């Protein structure tokens, strides 16, 4: 295979802070190379440097694409290459997609810029791309805005946009982070198919080592901005030479002892129903049911895992239980009927239940420091604490989630995706609530940090008697953290029960399909 991309002695820094040190690797035409490592190891900075996407980064070394040196070419030439010859799928689709344009318009813009297609033909191709990436009803979704899609559907729309011009090199930065296991398998199969059809090379950046084993030909392992080991996947996974690689491979979530709990439900929900309406013409509207009469209970100190494909209603259920969207049905936390509260009473009750959202960059204010973000709720719900006590509580919580004390005065954009997720967890934990909704809280974390966060959540649960609603597409994570599991499909519960029983002896074909898809990554 011909060498398509060559990176030699690449250095990248933000002012005096060096993020990437002497990185070298190659990608041949039609080859799949994985770049793995912990959050903050420099994977994304390296990927962005290849297309010079971050103007604040100082670069040195060499980046050659098809023999052309990219670090010195003018911006006009880079714009010709971006999207057409080299494309990138970003880690956080809600931040990368433009919120004021439809998904179709954003795909069509790429086709218009590089191919000059007429609007009708561009729209036809946009619909075909959405269909190929597995989005249901592409003729309808092409006119949807990013906020109207689930997290997994937004990620698939990003993939469709990146593939629009059939690039020679696709840089995929955590392309399956927001996807459930069945769609992960579909996307990896899709990338395999496109690579065969187009001869496309893929630089696959991920923290999920199972996906690397399933997908990549070669792998480069990064730590602290340096490549510490490279080789074929079989070599590196079979006989890792570096201690850090061995540590990564050993970092799998431990199975939770899910012995039945005896406590009465702390959270009790009955007949939760949600329907979304969409305007049709001047006076009409279309009502689409999303959740169909779901009931559940979560005892004190226990975790209920909620699993299902993208669009199954997992996040909608969580938001309905937290009174963040309108829903029918009863929601009781201890003795308080949350569905009857409004105004100041509802706001005051939120001290007892908090949320960690799926996309940390979108949920953290870019204008506030970490200390202000984490301390905002403390100032609101604990007015009796003075400034010194509030700051100390914030510092203690940041330390608990594994962040350094100097994080308190920095801004979200200065952190990696995994570090931002830990900030979001700290913001919820600082109030010591009774219940926390965790919507994909480990999706942005590498294997070692994922294990650390799961262990942290267990310790906090035991220490404070916390109850968790844990939404995840990662079945290994659910097995590690959840005592009970609820399986959703099309807004309905298809199976529920103790996690061990559901995983070892699923009674429903849909649950068996989810578990079978999860095994594709092992």
Characterization of this structure:
- There is one protein chain.
- This protein is of the alpha/beta class.
- The protein folds into two domains: 178 residues, P-loop containing nucleotide triphosphate hydrolases (Rossmann fold, 3-Layer(aba) Sandwich); 257 residues, 3-Layer(aba) Sandwich (Rossmann fold).
- It is 38% helix and 27% strand.
- The chain contains 21 helices and 20 strands.
- Strands 6-7-8-3-9-10 form a six-stranded mixed sheet, sandwiched between helices. The chain has a six-stranded mixed sheet with strand order 16-17-18-13-19-20, sandwiched between helices.
- The protein is globular and about 70 Å long.
- The two termini are 28 Å apart.
- One of its GO terms (molecular function) is ATP binding.
- Its main location: membrane.
- Belongs to the ABC transporter superfamily.
- It is a peripheral membrane protein.
Rg result:
23 Å
Poorly predicted tracts of residues: none
Mean residue pLDDT: 88
Oligomer: single chain
Strand order, biggest sheet? 6-7-8-3-9-10
Output the structural class.
Answer: alpha/beta
Main sheet, how many strands, which sense, barrel?
Answer: 6 strands, mixed
CATH topology category name of the largest domain: Rossmann fold
Specify the number of helices.
Answer: 21
Principal-axis shape: globular
CATH top level of the largest domain is Alpha Beta
**Whole-number total of structural domains:** 2
How many strand segments? 20
Strand content range: 25-35%
Terminus-to-terminus distance: 28 Å
Helix content: 25-40%
CATH architecture of the largest domain: 3-Layer(aba) Sandwich
CATH superfamily of the largest domain: P-loop containing nucleotide triphosphate hydrolases
GO molecular function: ATP binding; ATP hydrolysis activity
Keywords: ATP-binding, Cell membrane, Membrane, Nucleotide-binding, Transport
Protein name: ABC transporter related protein
GO cellular component, one term: plasma membrane
């Amino acid at each position: 295979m011909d060498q398509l991309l060559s990176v030699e002695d690449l250095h990248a820094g933000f002012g005096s802070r060096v993020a990437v040190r002497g990185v070298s690797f190659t990608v041949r035409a039609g080859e799949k190379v994985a770049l793995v490592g912990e959050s903050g190891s420099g994977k994304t900075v390296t990927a962005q440097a290849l297309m010079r996407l971050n103007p604040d980064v100082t670069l040195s070394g060499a980046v050659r694409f098809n023999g052309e040196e990219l670090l010195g070419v003018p911006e006009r030439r880079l714009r010709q290459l971006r999207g057409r010859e080299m494309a990138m799928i970003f880690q956080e689709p809600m931040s990368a997609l433009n919120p004021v344009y439809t998904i179709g318009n954003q795909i069509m813009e790429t086709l218009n810029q590089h191919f000059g297609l007429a609007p009708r033909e561009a729209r036809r191709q946009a619909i075909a791309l959405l269909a190929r990436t597995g989005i249901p009803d592409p003729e309808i979704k092409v006119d949807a805005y990013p906020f109207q899609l689930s997290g997994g559907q937004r990620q698939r729309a990003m993939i469709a946009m990146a593939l629009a011009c059939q690039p020679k090199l696709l840089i995929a930065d955590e392309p399956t982070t927001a996807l459930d296991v069945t769609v992960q398998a579909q996307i990896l199969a899709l990338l395999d198919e496109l690579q065969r059809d187009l001869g496309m090379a893929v630089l696959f950046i991920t923290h999920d080592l199972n996906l690397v084993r399933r997908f990549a030909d070669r792998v480069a392992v990064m730590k602290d901005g340096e490549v510490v080991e490279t080789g074929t996947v079989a070599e590196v996974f079979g006989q890792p030479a570096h201690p850090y690689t061995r540590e990564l491979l050993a970092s799998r979530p431990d199975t939770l002892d899910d012995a039945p709990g005896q406590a009465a439900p702390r959270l009790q929900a009955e007949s939760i129903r949600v329907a979304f309406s969409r305007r049709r013409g001047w006076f009409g509207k279309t009502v689409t049911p999303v959740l169909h009469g779901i009931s559940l209970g979560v005892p004190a100190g226990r975790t209920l895992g909620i699993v299902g494909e993208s669009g199954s209603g997992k996040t909608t259920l969580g938001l309905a239980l937290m009174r963040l969207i309108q829903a029918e049905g009863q929601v009781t936390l201890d003795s308080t009927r949350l569905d009857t509260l409004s105004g100041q009473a509802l706001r005051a009750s939120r001290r007892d239940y908090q949320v960690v959202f799926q996309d940390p960059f979108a949920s953290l204010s870019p204008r506030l420091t970490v200390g202000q973000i984490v301390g905002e709720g403390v100032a609101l719900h604990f007015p009796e604490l003075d400034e010194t006590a509030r700051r100390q509580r914030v510092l203690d919580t940041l330390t608990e989630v594994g962040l350094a004390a100097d994080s308190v005065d920095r801004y979200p954009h200065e952190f990696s995706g995994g570090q931002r997720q830990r900030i979001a967890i700290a913001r919820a934990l600082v109030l010591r609530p009774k219940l926390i909704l965790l919507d994909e809280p480990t999706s942005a974390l590498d294997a070692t940090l994922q294990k650390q966060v799961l262990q942290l959540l267990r310790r906090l649960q035991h220490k404070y008697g916390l109850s968790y609603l844990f939404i995840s597409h990662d079945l290994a994570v659910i097995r590690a953290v959840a005592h009970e599991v609820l399986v959703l499909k099309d807004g309905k519960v298809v199976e529920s029960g103790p996690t061990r029983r559901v995983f070892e002896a699923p009674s429903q074909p849909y649950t068996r399909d989810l578990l079978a898809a999860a095994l594709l990554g092992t």
